[in-house]
């Protein structure tokens, strides 16, 4: 069976053995795209030892300095979480997320983000995700080892591939890539600054974070992003014609 364009992204992994075990889990379930964001130790003999034959996945792994670089070219993106998050995020059970990932991979590469072993993903790492993925666990001890979590997700993806095929979601245009969304958010922040539309909360970042979350839930395609950026540009041009400097 040909590997699907589903990219496993590990952020700030501290133990090289977990990288190797992740590669093994992926190869078991016929996934081969691994991206590592700021791994503490890689390459490393422990990673090779724990890979147990999945050396090809390790050798082809991309080491990136930013999450944006690791997700470049992806369409649908899902972030794993073990912690309760606020209700502004769409949260999917691992099985539902895997089935969606398989369908979306028919249209564009899919990114699945896993956080550091000790702390999990930071809130800023979630900003590019369209949904969160949670693995059901017992209430008394909900912590999973990183490679165990990857194994569960990879298994569910393999299971979803063996179900009767479903058509990909109907969509005239592919989802906007993470880099397109990042440019939209930068443009939006600039316009909000120019029109003096300020966040009134104490921290000062609640407004833009809320906007990012509802736009991520909307799952914009590239044309829709271009429309929004065109509106923002028109606002800027109108202000300049009125004599207001940017």
Describe this structure in words.
The chain is of the alpha/beta class and 246 residues long. The chain folds into two domains: 6-161, SPOUT methyltransferase, trefoil knot domain (Alpha/beta knot), CATH 3.40.1280.10; 178-241, Helicase, Ruva Protein, domain 3 (Orthogonal Bundle). It contains nine helices and seven strands; from the N terminus they run βαβααβαββαββαααα. It has a seven-stranded parallel beta sheet with strand order 3-2-1-6-4-7-5. Helix 1 (16-28) links the parallel strand 1 (6-11) and strand 2 (33-37). Helix 1 (16-28) packs parallel to helix 2 (45-51) and helix 1 runs parallel beside helix 6 (146-161). The longest helix is centred in the last third of the chain and has 20 residues, at 222-241. The radius of gyration is 20 Å and the shape is globular.
């Amino acid at each position: 069976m040909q590997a699907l364009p589903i990219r496993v992204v590990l952020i700030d992994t501290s133990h090289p053995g977990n990288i190797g075990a992740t590669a093994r889990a992926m190869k078991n379930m016929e996934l081969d795209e691994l991206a590592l964001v700021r791994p503490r130790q890689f390459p490393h003999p422990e990673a090779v030892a724990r890979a147990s034959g999945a050396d090809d996945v390790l050798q082809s792994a991309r080491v990136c300095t930013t999450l944006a670089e690791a997700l470049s070219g992806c369409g649908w993106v899902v972030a794993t979480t073990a912690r309760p998050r606020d209700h502004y995020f769409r949260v999917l059970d691992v099985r539902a997320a895997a089935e969606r990932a398989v369908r979306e991979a028919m249209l564009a590469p899919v990114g699945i983000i896993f956080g550091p072993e000790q702390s999990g993903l930071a809130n800023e790492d979630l900003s590019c995700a369209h949904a969160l993925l949670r693995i059901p666990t017992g209430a008394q001890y909900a912590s999973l080892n990183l490679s165990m979590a990857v194994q569960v997700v990879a298994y569910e993806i393999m299971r979803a591939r063996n179900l009767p095929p479903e058509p990909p979601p109907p969509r005239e245009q592919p989802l906007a890539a993470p880099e397109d969304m990042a440019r939209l958010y930068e443009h939006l922040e600039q316009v909000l600054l120019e029109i003096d539309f300020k966040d009134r909360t104490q921290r000062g970042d609640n407004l833009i974070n809320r906007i990012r979350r509802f736009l991520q839930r909307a799952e914009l395609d590239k044309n829709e992003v271009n429309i929004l950026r065109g509106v923002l540009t028109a606002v800027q041009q109108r202000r300049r014609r009125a004599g207001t400097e940017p």
